[in-house]
Amino acid sequence: MSYKGNWSKRGEWLELTPGKVLLSQPDREQAAAKWLLETFGMPEKLYRKLRHEQGIQWRGDRLRLVLFPYRDYGIEPRWQELHVLHEDEFCLVVNKPAGMAVHPDQESEETTLNHVVAAYYEAEGIHTAVRHIHRLDKDTTGPVLYAKNEYAQLKLDEAMREKKIVRIYAAIVQGRVGQELKVIDLPIGKDRYHSSRRRVSLTGQAAITHILSSEVYPRASLLNISLETGRTHQIRVHLSHMGHPLLGDSLYGGPALFSRQALHGERLLFHHPLTGERVEVQAPWPQDMMELRELIIEGS
Question: What are the positions of the active site (predicted)?
Answer without folding.
Answer: 137
